[in-house]
From TrEMBL:
Gene encoding the protein: mqnE
Sites where the protein binds [4Fe-4S] cluster: C93, C97, C100
Name the record gives this protein: Aminodeoxyfutalosine synthase
UniProt keywords, alphabetically: 4Fe-4S, Iron, Iron-sulfur, Menaquinone biosynthesis, Metal-binding, S-adenosyl-L-methionine, Transferase
EC category name: transferase
Heme is among the record's keywords: no
Keyword 4Fe-4S assigned: yes
UniProt-recorded Gene Ontology molecular function terms: 4 iron, 4 sulfur cluster binding; 7,8-didemethyl-8-hydroxy-5-deazariboflavin synthase activity; aminodeoxyfutalosine synthase activity; iron ion binding
GO biological process assignments: menaquinone biosynthetic process
Length: 413
């Protein structure tokens, strides 16, 4: 069995090189694209101009060959997922991001939910018997959710369940709560670490360039502030993720600028784990008049991210946002991680019009989804430690567990 797998991996490595050689030997290939394919083969970094060139000129098939070449060089067929759930303290928010379908403006706060510390701990405790490894905490920004509140929440979760990784909040919340508490970013992040925060998710990044950010996310932290808070967190020896919200009013140059700024910070700190492109979904928000980009553009975007972000180990497709089918396809376009089981605990994307209205997959379903497209499923912890290799795992040998049912979140609309 082991031998067979080794042979198949070697065959695959040969196939990847052959595919890229075939591209390079194609006399009809545009000179700019030829140069980029050569750079990828020789592991040379792309320039900003080459990034834009890819968006403007590269066909999907070409991008797939390059992105898969890099993906398989880094990870072979390995495809990561985790067992997680989300905790969303509130969907009421002081800010008014035009892409947000989730937040109930402060003036209409009676339409939303605002969980107390006790209610949040109740949700955490409902998972006591479940083999989840991560809680992902993110939501709206409100004054009562301050430094003290989150310090207590993190320390209570850690005290209750030390094996549950707390991945929580973004620079949007941190900028607000530190300002309110009159502490510097450095001091604030140190306090969060002390309280039990273990890593930061990638949200709130949107598009860094002020030409776009000022129009879609006015009032919340700037791109510079977002990057600075991650930098400080990395300097404390901690890890985080990064996202990019694409497919609305931004141009290709803004996407490349966004990725360039992340690539530069990653050169400095090495603290980012994964890059997560997030497709703008257009239901129930102030940009509903904009059409959504196609699945082809989603795949092109994943592939360009994989090619451009040479110092990011992982590229993640967040399946509750793009749906299971595109998530499966993305695994041939540079993606090696599809996030987690979720357990129907996030409303951000269902409210924005995602196909996945009640996002929840069992471990077995996630494993099948990955295996169905010929990849090798690995359950990881938040920091990419291997929890379980599912390649040869036999689910029929497992004791049947009675599903307790989803933990309900207040649902509005
Ligand atoms: O910052 C909000 C995005 C983000 C819409 O780090 C929307 O592992 C599309 O960051 N259409 C929050 N996107 C979610 C997030 C995340 C998700 C999964 C995994 C991780 C991780 C991070 O959701 C926001 C914003 O960019 N968002 N509304 C919308 N209508
Ligand atoms: Fe608030 Fe976040 Fe929605 Fe912006 S995206 S309005 S910060 S919940």
């Amino acid at each position: 069995m082991l031998n067979l797998r080794r042979i198949s991996h070697e065959t695959k490595t040969r196939d990847m090189s052959t595919a890229i050689d075939t591209l390079l030997n194609d006399s009809a290939l545009d000179a700019g694209l030829h140069q980029i394919a050569q750079a990828v083969q020789q592991e040379k970094r792309l320039t900003v101009e080459q990034g834009i060139y890819l968006y403007e000129h590269a066909p999907l098939g070409y991008l797939g060959v390059l992105a898969n070449f890099i993906r398989e060089k880094k990870h072979g067929d390995k495809t990561y997922f985790n067992r997680n759930f989300h905790l969303e303290p509130t969907n009421v928010c002081l800010y008014t991001c035009t892409f947000c379908s989730y937040s109930r403006r402060i003036k209409k706060r009676e339409d939303g939910w605002e969980l107390s510390l006790e209610e949040m701990m109740e949700i955490i405790k409902k998972y006591d018997e479940e083999p989840v490894t991560e809680v992902h905490i993110v939501g709206g920004v409100l004054p009562q959710y301050d430094l003290e509140f989150y310090s207590q929440l993190f320390s209570q979760i850690r005290a209750h369940r030390p094996d549950l990784h707390v991945k929580a909040l973004t620079p949007v919340e941190y900028h607000y709560i530190f300002k309110k508490a009159k502490v510097s970013y450095e001091e604030g992040m140190r306090l969060m670490k002390e309280a039990g925060l273990q890593s930061m998710p990638g949200g709130g990044a949107e598009i860094f360039h002020p030409e776009i950010r000022d129009q879609i996310a006015g009032g919340k932290c700037t791109g510079e502030q977002w990057l600075r808070i991650h930098e400080i967190w990395h300097e404390l020896g901690m890890r985080s993720n990064a996202t990019m919200l694409y497919g609305h009013i931004e141009e290709f140059k803004h996407r490349v600028d966004h990725m360039e700024q992340l690539r530069q910070l990653q050169d400095k700190t090495g603290g980012f784990q994964t890059f997560i492109p997030l497709k703008f979904r257009n239901q129930n928000n102030e940009m509903s008049h904009l059409p959504e980009v196609s699945a082809v553009e989603d795949l092109r975007n994943y592939a360009i991210a994989r090619i451009y972000m040479d110092n990011f180990e992982h590229i993640k497709a967040y399946w509750p946002m793009i749906g299971r089918t595109t998530a499966q396809l993305s695994l041939a376009f540079g993606v090696d991680d599809i996030d987690g089981t979720i357990d129907d605990t996030t409303k951000i994307y269902s409210m924005a019009g995602s196909e996945e209205q009640n996002p929840a997959l069992s471990t077995e379903e996630l494993v099948q989804l990955i295996k169905a497209v010929g990849r090798h499923p690995i359950e990881r912890g938040t920091l990419y430690n291997v929890v379980q290799d599912y390649q040869d795992f036999d689910f029929s040998q497992q004791p049947k567990k009675v599903k307790k049912g989803f933990v309900g979140l207040p649902v509005i609309d």
